[in-house]
Each structure stands twice: as structure tokens, then as C-alpha cells.
């Protein structure tokens, strides 16, 4: 659905809103082909999890969050590709993705890596993979408390969009997003799947994660802080996406803020690091 269809909010404002309020959009029926870099992930997860990702509530949540949060994100086509390659590599690792057998009985479909939220994102169109990347950052930052953060993000974004409706013009996407309903249980399921993926990826790259963790801890660069959690998260997420897109595209970057290091530890892409006093320089000579 594009955001180009606009209504002038003049004398017909109330009638337009009343008419649109009766529109019921089923997000679960909209599916997109996953980028080819994610295909091996789709084949590696269990059929049950793949079905849940494509047709279940997690798919709906991915679609809704993408529409709600992604209208002004930076373009990240190469980061999406690089992450898909890394995700497929993780999913093919037998250490974190053992295959269920007949001896596992009723638990067979639950054996193996939980890539549900990521496959749901990969099949949910533009922006959804970026939302999964945000989920990994939040799960890393708020262990056990990310569901409350997601609920606050959804609430704040909807309030902002509703405020737009009182202005001169608004897009159909803005109206649709402002009416989205995502329950706390659905957000908890989304977060739990992202957290499970994060733990599996940590295990698959345990040595590199340990090395990255030592460097990050020794740098002592703190994450942004303040009372406006929504604003901090959105700014940090966008800057991390833009930064990593540049790295993947071969542009060395200097790190002076903590959100970049949080993204590095959450997305399992490992550029070369050169530590110079309080500034870390990242090179894309090797994305390991």
C-alpha cells in the first residue's frame, strides 16, 4: 500500500475519517517473496515455524510494525542482503539448528532454531527486516523487559500519527497505521522469537561475539540516555541502520556513540575494528 493517496482535511474531514474507520485491513493475507539471500533460512527452519512466520500472528505483527514505524527509515538494501547471508549461515549451523527426528515425537516440530520473527519479516515487504534488526537491538539492551518498550513504541507512534490527522493533509498509510492494534501478548511473542534468534546467533558466533564484547566493554562508550525512550530508540535505530549500510558498502566509519556498538553486537556482522584512543574506526575490508 503506498502513501501517495491523500485526503484534504477541510470541510469533509469528518466524513472522510468516518468512512475510513470502517475499512478493515487483514494484514495476514499480504505476503511478499523473501529476498533471495534469506531463502536458505526459510528452508532451514522447521515447517511449523515457517507456517507460523508466513500465516500466523507473528507475520501480522511484522507487517503492522513495518507500516507503523518505517515510513522515514534510511534506504538499506545492501545491509538487508548482508544480513540475509549471515542469517542463512547461522540457520545452517547444526550446532544451533539441529534437525528433529521421529525419536523427538510430538516435539519434533519444535526442535531447531527459532527464525520465526526473521522469516516473518523477510516475507513482509519493505521495512520489516529493519524492524527485526530493531527487535534484536531491544532484546540485547532490555533483557526481559523489551515487551514493555515495544508497547511504548507502538503507543507513542500511534499518538503521533493521530496528531497528523488533525493537520491539513494526511496519507492513507498514516490513517491505517494510526488504527493498528497489536496486543501485548503479540508483542511478547515477537520479542521472544527475536530473543531466541539472538541467543542462537550468539552461540553460532560465540568466539567472534566474545572478541567483540571485550572491545566494546573496554571502549566504555555509553548508550544514549534520557527520559524520551521513543525518541532515543528511533534516533539510535536509524543511525545504526545508516552506519551499517555504509560499512557494507565499503565506507570506513568512526564510532563515537554507543548505539552503533549495540547494533554490531546484535546483528552479527563483524567489520574490522581499529581502536584509536576513544574513537573506534570500522573498516569494511572484511565483513566476517
Helical percent range?
A: 55-70%
Enumerate how many helices there are, as a single number. Answer: 13
Largest sheet: 3 strands, antiparallel
What is the string of helix and strand elements? EHHHHHHHHEHHHHEHEE
Mean pLDDT: 81
- The backbone outline, from C-alpha atoms, is globular
What oligomeric state is this? single chain
Number of beta-strand segments: 5
Taking pLDDT < 50 over at least 5 consecutive residues as the criterion, the unreliable ranges are 1-24, 279-286
Whole-angstrom Rg: 20 Å
* Gap between N and C termini: 36 Å
- The percentage of residues in β strands lies in 5-15%
Q: Which structural class fits the helix and strand makeup? A: mainly alpha
Strand order of the largest sheet: 3-5-4
Q: How would you portray this structure in words?
A:
The protein is 57% helix and 7% strand. The longest helix has 21 residues. The protein has a domain of 198 residues. The chain is mainly alpha-helical and 288 residues long. The protein contains 13 helices and 5 strands.
Amino acid at each position: 500500500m503506498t502513501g501517495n493517496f491523500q485526503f484534504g482535511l477541510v470541510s469533509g474531514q469528518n466524513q472522510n475519517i468516518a468512512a475510513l474507520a470502517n475499512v478493515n485491513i487483514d494484514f495476514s493475507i499480504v505476503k511478499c517473496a523473501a529476498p533471495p539471500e534469506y531463502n536458505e533460512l526459510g528452508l532451514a527452519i522447521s515447517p511449523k515455524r515457517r507456517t507460523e512466520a508466513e500465516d500466523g500472528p507473528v507475520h501480522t505483527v511484522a507487517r503492522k510494525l513495518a507500516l507503523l514505524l518505517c515510513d522515514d527509515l534510511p534506504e538499506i538494501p545492501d545491509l538487508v542482503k548482508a544480513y540475509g547471508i549471515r542469517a542463512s549461515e547461522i540457520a545452517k549451523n547444526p550446532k544451533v539448528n539441529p534437525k528433529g527426528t521421529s525419536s523427538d515425537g510430538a516435539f519434533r516440530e519444535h526442535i531447531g532454531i527459532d527464525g520465526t520473527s526473521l522469516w516473518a519479516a523477510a516475507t513482509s515487504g519493505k521495512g520489516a527486516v529493519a524492524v527485526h534488526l530493531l527487535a534484536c537491538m531491544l532484546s540485547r539492551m532490555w533483557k526481559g523487559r523489551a515487551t514493555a518498550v515495544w508497547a511504548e513504541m507502538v503507543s507513542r507512534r500511534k499518538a503521533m500519527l493521530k496528531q497528523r490527522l488533525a493537520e491539513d493533509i494526511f496519507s492513507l498509510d498514516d490513517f491505517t497505521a494510526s488504527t493498528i492494534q497489536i496486543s501485548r501478548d503479540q508483542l511478547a511473542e515477537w520479542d521472544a522469537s527475536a530473543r531466541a534468534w539472538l541467543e542462537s546467533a550468539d552461540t553460532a558466533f560465540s568466539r567472534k561475539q566474545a572478541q567483540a564484547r571485550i572491545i566494546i566493554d573496554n571502549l566504555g562508550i555509553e548508550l544514549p540516555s534520557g527520559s524520551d525512550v521513543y525518541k532515543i530508540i528511533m534516533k539510535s535505530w536509524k543511525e545504526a541502520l545508516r552506519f551499517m549500510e555504509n560499512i557494507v558498502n565499503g565506507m570506513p566509519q568512526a564510532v563515537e556513540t554507543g548505539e552503533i556498538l549495540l547494533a554490531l553486537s546484535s546483528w552479527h556482522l563483524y567489520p574490522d575494528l581499529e581502536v584509536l584512543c576513544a574513537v573506534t574506526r570500522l573498516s569494511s575490508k572484511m565483513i566476517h
